[in-house]
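The data are quoted verbatim for completeness:
=====
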Amino acid sequence: MEQSAARERATDRPSPPFGDPARVPEQGRSAGDAGRPGGTAYVRATEDTRDVRYTRGPAPAPGARGEHTHDRPAVPAPREVRRHSVRGQILDALRTALVGGELVPGEVYSAPALAERFGVSATPVREAMQRLAVEGAVEVVPNRGFRVTERTPRELAELAEVRALIEVPVMLRLARTVPAARWAELRPLAEATAAAAARGDRAHYAETDRAFHRAVLSLAGNTQLLTVADDLHRRSQWPLISAPALRHGDLVADAAEHTALLDALIAQDLTVVQSLVREHFAGADG
């Protein structure tokens, strides 16, 4: 009876997530080391299938499944997660390079060359560039790489017009309904843009400028609005072909508009709010 009950309990036990425990050769050792003490690292799936541990020594006997190994370090995150994390970092770096003018409009860049520059494999770079192609920042050149899109003043004006059509009505509505105390909470973000402008750091200014606008629009409580507005904002920050370098004074004046906008929103001065937003879209942030 006791043996029958034990078999039933073993049958009811959930299967390990990765099948039977398998030997995984320890890095730096050959398969021939498997028979030596401590020569092999294998994965053991415990009774709680979420508790997967690395253990040293020979593979466990079939009846040893379910044994807890709480004194062993946890298995690292899956490789796919690490790759996506690298891709995200590369994507951020490429966007910064676009805004800063390091990636020149009209030039073609290969994924392997950029990968060497960042010290990573070509795969996350290629994935990041594909994302930028979807956003319109680059275009695929078969068998060569990716060409940075050549944008024109007309495209910039069109982006400013679309942003105004979306954001001006929202900000006017928020000016009528949001308490002054909520607007005051956004002053540190406005100050961050001013600090970046004072240093002449265009890439950081672009980042803090988007953060300020996201914070303002988030008060509308519309996630889709935030997604669309942020995409348009990012596109407007990419450099124009043969664009002259932005003067430091222009960047500082553009950053000062954030503080002026907050003052107008607190005062519920709708005329000034509308004027400032439209001017800001056509200013240094694009």
